[in-house]
Automatic annotation (TrEMBL):
Keywords: Isomerase
Annotated source species: Starmerella bacillaris
GO MF annotations, alphabetized: amino-acid racemase activity
Family named by the database record: Belongs to the aspartate/glutamate racemases family.
Pfam families: Asp_Glu_race
Name of the protein described by the UniProt record: Aspartate racemase
Domain of life from the UniProt record: Eukaryota
Signal sequence, renumbered to the chain: none
């Protein structure tokens, strides 16, 4: 008997790296579960990342909310049965986006928290963009799931943000930057952290999530995994 695959809506930025990672992992899971000829049903919208970053830098979060909410709504109208934001930073406005659509928004923090809980990790270090580490939305949502997120100090946060946006995003991979990230993980470990979350897809270009001083969680892969499971799960329809 054939399996109905539900349609996943992906809202990505114009830097194709994250969207590509989502597509590849969702496709991999669907093929593994349903057979080589199976493929996911996806609806993809990309947004001008430069425009989103400019809005963020100007503190115009309400404009960012409206912009991304309209894009999410267009995914729903195109047939998406769930929506994912393929950038952790975009989740700062996730509540507004969620309220603008009827279909579920699969939240990256919730799926990451679930995996942490499964492995009995409750105090992860978060490495991500400065916006994600500093705005508090990530920590507060994790706290609702019983997880106490810690972040590097101000100097460390600045270093991570710079590595993401001024190096990795520009195709620059430096061993010295990898050493900085590993040092931040070791510092957090000495302060009681029991795991580390790579909360930005770019970081996996420098760090192997399976070869870190602490157990690692790639939030992009976990998020994509949740989307794949939604796609192949039985619908009530």
């Amino acid at each position: 008997m054939s399996t109905t695959i539900r349609t996943v809506g992906l809202l990505s930025n114009t830097d194709a790296a994250a969207g590509t990672q989502y597509y590849r992992h969702i496709r991999k899971v669907v093929k593994e579960q349903l057979g080589d000829l199976s493929s996911p049903n996806l609806v993809l919208r990309t947004v001008n990342f430069a425009a989103v970053i400019e809005l963020q830098q100007q503190g115009r979060w309400e404009d960012a909310r409206k912009y991304l909410a309209n894009v999410a709504y267009s995914l729903e109208k195109a047939g998406a049965q769930c929506v994912l934001l393929c950038a952790v930073t975009m989740h700062l406005v996730a509540d507004c986006i969620d309220s603008s659509i009827i279909v579920p928004l699969i939240h990256v923090v919730d799926v990451t928290a679930k995996k942490l809980q499964e492995n009995k990790h409750s105090k992860p270090l978060l490495l991500a963009s400065g916006y994600t580490m500093e705005k508090g939305f990530y920590q507060s949502r994790m706290a609702r799931n019983g997880v106490d997120v810690i972040v590097p100090d101000e100097c460390g946060r600045s270093a991570v943000h710079n590595i993401i946006f001024n190096e990795i995003s520009e195709g620059v991979m430096l061993q010295s930057s990898r050493d900085i990230l590993i040092s931040l993980i070791n510092t957090a470990k000495s302060q009681g952290a029991d795991s580390v979350i790579l909360g930005c897809s770019e970081l996996t270009a420098l760090l192997d999530v399976n070869s870190l001083p602490l157990p690692g969680y790639d939030s992009t892969i976990l998020h994509a995994q949740a989307a794949a499971e939604f796609a192949i799960s039985k619908s009530d329809a």
